[in-house]
Amino acid sequence: MPIKFFKILIKTLLLLVLVVILIGLTLPQNYSVNKNIQINANVATVKSLVSDFSLWHTWSPWGKVDPSITFTLGEPSRGIGAHQSWQSDWGYGEMTITSLSQNKMAFNALLKNEHIIEGEITFTEVEGVVNVTCNINGQTNTPLISGYLSIFSEYVLSNTVSLGLNNLQTVAQLRDQKTQLDNDDSKISPSEN
After folding, report:
1. Mean pLDDT score of the chain, rounded to an integer?
2. pTM for this prediction
3. Which of 19, 98, 136, 185 could tie 33 with a disulfide, CB 3.0–4.6 Å?
4. In what order do the strands lie in the sheet with 30-39?
């Protein structure tokens, strides 16, 4: 009796594994994340925070999401060609700014030499409010589990990008307020004659 039960159990487990693999093979390997936020700050302030990897530590959520992560800045650290890499318990990756214009920054990222990401951050100012949109498109290439990794990556990036944009909003608004206060103070302070 116990041998028959174990044979049925093994066959059921093998069938379940096969079904999971087959479903994984039919899932899309591509994913997309598109988030935006409005920031009450100068577009130059927002652009400087986004296009300079040496300032990402002020708003990027990755240090909180993964405390084991360490970043290495390349040269240059800002503008077109800026490069950063990272290492953590979860893996490693690198990111490069591929283009930068008045209202848009595009970047590429490669995770573990197999997971490709392209993205862009746009910042458009209308009546003193900057609308920031982050659009990320990724593709996983890990055999058999790419579909599941794609779903997981989209979930993690969606939440992390939202958190990052909220942090960016706070930092940019505080920087603009400080700049405004400093300018107001310099106008009020008595001149020396």
Report:
1. 88
2. 0.80
3. 136
4. 30-39, 129-139, 115-126, 104-111, 91-100, 83-88, 70-73
